[in-house]
Structure formats: C-alpha cells, structure tokens
Amino acid sequence: MGTELRLPRPGDGLRKRRIFVFAGGESRPPTGGLVSIDPLNGTLNFAFPWRSTSYESVNAASPVVIGNQVFVSASYKTGGALLDVLPNGGYKAAWKSADLSTHFNTAIYKDGYLYGFDGRNERMLRLFVSK
C-alpha cells in the first residue's frame, strides 16, 4: 500500500459496526479504493475500486459516512461516488459524478448536501445525497 493521508471512518450502517478505509493502493499501476472491514473480527465486507488512473494521484480525502451510505472522492478527473451499504455486507453504487473531485480535503455532509472543493480550485459545490 502507498502512503495513507487520511483517517479510517467508523460507521454504523444498517445496525452493523464497520470501519471504512479509503486506501491508496499501489502507484504502478494506480490501484486503490474503499474497503469496509468488520472491526470485531477483521473480515473484509467489501472492496470498491476508486482511484484516478494518473500515476501522480493519491486517495487523500477521508470517506464520508452518512447513515447507511458512504461517499468517496478522488481528484485528477476521477470524481466521487456514493455507495449504499447493504444489509448483506455488500454495496451498491447509488451514483457516480465527476462534479466533485476532492484532492486533499474531505467533503462535509450537511442537511442532504455534500460541500467540498473540486480539485485544487476554490469552488464550492453542493450535491444532493439520497436518503
């Protein structure tokens, strides 16, 4: 695994405790993404690949846990994805969008919207989060 710049996030989606880690993976070729881990026994619930194809990229923003959903985002023309965490431990992609490519900052959830900076630009965006 490459250097990690963010913190794991706990989540209580669907009444089951999980730890979400947005890992950088290897650089050649660029790999990485979100993993969901059971903190009681270390079992991997799922792995969702999400990383820019650019060699210079990193997964630096922390995952944002919103109830039974998790948002991840990466820069370099990658964008973000909102995942529904399923009762069986898996996931389903609720949506993917190129409109919010966080670079070294983590988006903030408030009242049904995600707020963040797209790439290195100081442009704030709002995206609807399904409930």
Task: Describe the structure concisely.
This protein is mostly beta strands. It has no helices and eleven strands.
Write up what this structure looks like.
It is a single chain. With 131 residues, the protein is mostly beta strands. The protein is 0% helix and 43% strand. It has no helices and eleven strands. The protein has strands at residues 9-11, 18-23, 33-37, 44-49, 64-66, 69-74, 79-85, 91-97, 108-110, 113-117, 124-128. The strands form three sheets. The protein has a four-stranded antiparallel sheet, with no helix packed on it. A four-stranded antiparallel sheet has the order 5-6-7-8, with no helix packed on it. Strands 9-10-11 form a three-stranded antiparallel sheet, with no helix packed on it. The radius of gyration is 14 Å and the shape is globular.
Strand order of the largest sheet: 1-2-3-4
Q: H/E element string?
A: EEEEEEEEEEE
Give a quick account of the main beta sheet: strands, pairing sense, barrel closure: 4 strands, antiparallel
Q: Percent helix among the residues?
A: under 10%
Q: Strand tally, please?
A: 11
- Whole-Å distance between the termini? 33 Å
**Average pLDDT taken over every residue:** 78
Basic shape: globular
Radius of gyration: 14 Å
Uncertain ranges: 1-6
How many helices? 0
Task: Give the structural class.
Answer: mainly beta
Percent strand: 35-45%
Q: Which SSEs are present, and which pair or pack?
A:
Blueprint: E1 9-11, E2 18-23, E3 33-37, E4 44-49, E5 64-66, E6 69-74, E7 79-85, E8 91-97, E9 108-110, E10 113-117, E11 124-128
Antiparallel strand pairs: 1-2, 2-3, 3-4, 5-6, 6-7, 7-8, 9-10, 10-11
